[in-house]
Amino acid sequence: MTGCLFYGKGKWDKFVHAIFYLLDPSTTLGAGKKQLAFSDVRKFGKITLLNTKEAYESKHLKNLGPEPLEKQFTINNFKLRIKTKPNTKIKTVLLDQTIIAGIGNIYSDEILWQAGIHPKRKVSQITEPELKKIFRAMKTTLQKGIDFGGDSNSDYLNIYGLPGKFQLHHNAYQRAGEKCRKYGCGGVIMREVINSRSAHFCSRHQI
Ligand SMILES: [Zn+2]
What we know:
alpha+beta, Helicase, Ruva Protein, domain 3, two-stranded antiparallel sheet
């Protein structure tokens, strides 16, 4: 979602698929002054009209995994869910919204960089201590994303029309060919397509 339809002077955000014109009680002008826009670069989103009571049981939401930053989402819960996909590559599992909700491509790359795990490792090949590292990296990386106000690598703007700053702190995502920032690593960031998504990872410390 974005609160602003323009990047700059007269430049239309081509990823906006719907605009809600909101009533503004502070004026007598009525609808139209304030807008809520649905901006979706990858077309993964959808808009559906539902009764609030039935929303979480609808086919759109009932299969969503838990929110990763919820306190109830513990290491044991994480391991149980991840292990339901033993033959799948870890990056693909992290992106699977039925396993965990809300991890996108940027965050999956940053989580695996932080945890030191190669994105192509299959879940069944990942040890218990490594799963713990991924779990911790997931919590800290997502919290960091929130603390920096989100990621505006693409068109994300907050409700005031301002960008987030997480894109200034990427260690892996879109840094292909650059030196790894992990202290003493000496590796280089590589890029590879995994299950139709671009993966960025360190050539040395992600094993
Ligand atoms: Zn490295």
